[in-house]
Design brief:
By secondary structure, this protein is mostly helical. The chain contains 6 helices and no strands. The chain has helices at residues 3-25, 27-35, 69-72, 80-88, 90-93, 106-117. The protein binds heme C.
Length: 120
């Protein structure tokens, strides 16, 4: 291998290290990024509404986000329990909702809800 390429690769490894360390320290975050990050972020609306402060928030209450009518009028308040039910089967909790995603694994649901509860 050419020395320049070698150095470049070493540099990449160093750059990648802090991100990996953060994920190791907070496995809930890595899981959140992997499962939810395609559609959600903590601080910004994407395909789905932002999540910062979701615990204790009324469902469908982020101003300017185009919720389904079903979720907007659901009267749900997000608690650890309602979030767990939502992630298990959104359509069972709120028929007509538009989040086309569920988390089948109970342990993953618990870790994701725990992560969200730490990021109020
Ligand atoms: C394929 C895209 C997609 C994925 C993946 C996804 N969501 Fe959603 N999520 C949405 C959409 C769209 C809505 C709005 C649903 C509606 O209006 O009926 C939503 C709504 C929500 C809400 C309601 C928020 C509010 O303001 O009332 C919560 C909570 C939520 N998602 C959590 C999660 C979590 C946690 C994950 C990861 C396990 C996840 N979502 C993965 C698209 C997604």
């Amino acid at each position: 291998m050419k020395p320049a390429l070698c150095l470049a690769l070493a540099g990449l490894a160093v750059l990648a290290a802090p991100a990996r360390a953060a994920d190791d320290a907070d496995p809930g975050r890595a899981l959140y990024e992997a499962r939810c990050g395609g559609c959600h972020a903590l601080a910004a609306d994407r395909v789905g509404p932002r999540h910062a402060g979701v615990l204790g928030r009324k469902a469908g209450s982020i101003a300017g986000f185009a919720y389904s009518p079903a979720l907007a009028r659901s009267q749900i308040v997000w608690t650890e329990e309602s979030l767990e039910r939502w992630l298990r089967d959104p359509e069972a909790l709120v028929p007509g909702q538009r989040m086309n995603f569920r988390v089948g694994d109970a342990d993953e649901r618990r870790r994701i809800v725990e992560y969200l509860s730490r990021n109020r």
